Amino acid sequence: MQRRTFQQFLSAAALLSPVLGHTQSRQVLRAGDQKGGLRALLDAAGELKNLPYDIQWTEFPAAAPLAEALNADAVDFGPIGDAPLLFTLAAGSRVKAFAANRSDAYGTAVLVAPNSPLKDASSLKGKSVATNRGSIGHFVTLKALASVGLKPDDIHLRFLAPPDAKLALTQGSVDAWATWEPYTALAETGGHARVLVNGRGLSTGLSFLAATDTALRDKRAALKDIHQRLVRAQTWANQHIADYSASLARTIGIPADAARLQFERRQTRWQPIDTQVVADQQRTADFYQEVGLVKQRLDVRETFDTGFPITA
Predict the structure, then answer these.
(1) Which of 17-31, 120-134, 257-271 bottoms out in mean pLDDT, i.e. has the lowest?
(2) How many CB atoms lie within 10 A of CB 283?
(3) Terminus of the chain with fewer CB atoms < 10 Å: N or C?
């Protein structure tokens, strides 16, 4: 995406994303979001009330444009999966992960049409797969190939955003689509696709909140507060599945059955950035280097800010 176009997109998105409780004197936390996930969770749990700062929301369809916005200092923080975070860090982005959660990786999957003759990962050889470059879908595709002795060159990757990838699959111009929730649940419940390979055993299920170095320095208190609110909101949502799923469906405009399916099977839990998280992230980085997507070894310890303990 050209820079001018990208900046125009951000300006338009900001206008569509109202600042909550705006006053001139209060600090503004510029939040990036993917498919309304953070905002829907906080709103449903009542955690957007009594904020000591304002939030300006900008929504992105996937991690790649959100990472670009972080790198351009157009947002302060946002949710990003383990693989796309590594991809943008390897490209020199000045961001760090300051919070982590782990989910069941089933919904990070390679999908095929319901009537596709493909049966398993080995049947992907010679086929075309659509996904976002550097996304968790891209990562799971490569891991699935490696699990059956195939190499990246054994398939034809087409790098497309989720809406375009879904269209390509339904129109038959690609054989498979590698994606993540809620797109997987949407495709399944809508009868557009079935899971060929799921992410269990392939993906760590890790996702992060990443922030710019500037925000970590200048808006640290606000980032700590929003982190704790998200931890509390997740606990509430896990205890009120029906209420949260209905709220999520309304907020992001998807059917209620898809919203509930993706939420129930993810079983997301926030956790400290501990030695296991760092070790899992290092293995993901090393795999990216093995398959040639990252040219040099990345020491992931330098990509975390561990000064955000969970106290909620």
Answers:
(1) 17-31
(2) 13
(3) N
pLDDT in tens, 65-92: 899 999 999 999 999 999 889 988 888 8
Residues β-bridged to residue 130: 158, 177
Check: CB of residue 297 under 8 Å from CB of residue 285.
yes
Q: What tokens does 202 get?
A: 């392939």
Helix (H), strand (E) at residue 206: strand 206-212
The whole-number pLDDT of residue 7 equals 53
Contact 312, 105 (CB under 8 A): no
Could you give the 3-state DSSP secondary structure of residue 18? Answer: coil
Burial class of 52 by CB neighbour count within 10 A (0 to 12, 13 to 18, 19+)? exposed
CA distance 62 to 81: 10
Q: E strands, 243-301, where?
A: 269-271
pLDDT tens per residue across span 104-154: 999 999 999 999 999 999 999 999 999 998 889 999 999 999 999 999 999
* CA gap 80, 39 in Å, rounded: 14
Question: Which of 93, 61, 63, 75 shows the shortest CA–CA distance to 10?
Answer: 75
- Residue-wise burial string across 140-153, b where 16 or more C-beta atoms lie within 10 A, e elsewhere: bbbbbbbeeebeee
Distance CA 196, CA 119 (A): 7
| Token code pair at residue 133 | 């470059």
The span from the CA of 26 to the CA of 191, in Å, is: 47
Alpha helix ranges (H) inside 74-182? 82-90, 136-147, 162-171
Q: 127, 98, 96: which is closest to 111 by C-alpha?
A: 127
Cis peptide bond N-terminal to 182, omega within 30: yes
